[in-house]
Amino acid sequence: MTTLTTPRLARTAAEPAGSRPRRHYSTHIVLIVLAVMWLLPLGWSLYTALRPIESTNAHGYFSIAGPYNFDNFVTAWNQGGFSKYFWNSALITVPTVVLTLFFASLMAFAVSRVSWKFNIALLILFTAGNLLPPQVLAAPLFQMFKHLELPYWFSDSGSLLNTYISVIVVDTAFQIGFCTFVLSNYMKALSHDLTEAALVDGAGIWTQYWSIIMPLCRPAFAALGTLEVIFIYNDFFWPLLFIQNGDRLPVTTAINNLQGVFLSNYNLLAAGATITVIPTLVIYLVLQRQFVAGLTLGSSKG
Q1: Distance CA 38, CA 233 (A)
Q2: Whole-structure pTM over 0.90, yes or no?
Q3: What share of the chain is helix, strand, coil (3-state, %, to 5)?
Q4: How do the domains of the chain map onto residue ranges?
């Protein structure tokens, strides 16, 4: 007589009692605590934004007294001119992310998939560039852009100052090093048999890069694209330095329009800050699966 045993029960019976995986309650507790620490400022800002200033003045910011409404969001949107500033941020963020990923992918392919004399040296040079504080180059870049004469049909200031191009160029230059380092690690993990087979079939360097390597790096591009959108969208320093025209500033500066002369409505400021978070939050939620896949690619073998 044959006894049928399910694979799971057979495997459990065959394993020693001490080899069963333990529940890592401590890990879960740490993750929960960290998640609460990260979400608490955002939740508190949202809670404050939903309360009228009269309620907080009467009962304090730590009270739970109502009413709750979206009046602060409407006022912040109209008073801060967020529709215009969101468009300005898009004009800076989208070209910068596209150019950064494109140039970084070219450089990463050159240092990881092509054997030549200076590939390691260039990779170290690009990585070392991230160690330089951006503020160190603020004064030289400002003077260089100021004295670079351009026709007035290209720039109403006669130079690169007060243009989106100045911010795009600087942000792209500072982000290429980080993206090159990450993409080169991804490309190194890909099998060299792919490019060798393509080379045997007569594929050139550009074909290997565009048709073989680039499609395989989509998870890495999704992860980097998400991070770069967050980095550049939240950038406050370079736009404030190079753009003097208030109508061209990005959304990170729109909150200044909500500041009062003598008093500040912190409920209104919380609503404005919450509005600025929405685009990056939406992008992360949309690309969450690709973002996690890009971060975990190559973390395990087999």
Answers
A1: 19
A2: no
A3: 75, 0, 25
A4: 25-69, 83-296
More confident residue, 238 or 4: 238
Q: Which residue has the tokens 């500040």?
A: 264
How many other CB atoms are there within 10 angstroms of residue 213's CB atom? 22
CB 271 within 8 A of CB 75: yes
pLDDT digits (tens, 9 = 90+) for 146-201: 988 888 777 887 888 889 999 999 999 999 989 998 899 889 888 888 888 888 88
Separation between Cα atoms, residue 160 and residue 154, nearest integer Å = 9
Q: What is the tens place of the pLDDT at every residue in 199-229? A: 888 888 899 899 889 998 888 898 899 889 9
SS (H, E, C) 177-239: HHHHHHHHHHHHHCCHHHHHHHHHCCCCHHHHHHHHHHHHCHHHHHHHHHHHHHHHHCCCHHH
Whole-number Å distance between alpha carbons of 113 and 208: 9
Quick: pLDDT tens for 103-142. Answer: 999 999 988 888 877 878 888 887 887 788 888 889 999 9
Compute the C-alpha angle 275/37/299, nearest 5°: 95
Judge if the upstream peptide bond of residue 279 is cis by omega within 30 degrees of 0: no
Instruction: Take residue 6 and report the two structure tokens written for it.
Output: 């399910």
Running DSSP on this structure, what letter comes out for residue 283?
A: H
> How far is Cα 107 from Cα 271, in angstroms, rounded to an integer?
41
CA 261 vs. chain centroid, Å, equals: 34
CATH for 83-296 (1.10.3720.10, 1.20.1260.10, 1.10.443.10, 2.115.10.20): 1.10.3720.10
| DSSP state for residue 22 in the 8-state scheme | P
Burial status of residue 179 (CB atoms within 10 A of its CB: 0-12, 13-18, 19 or more): buried
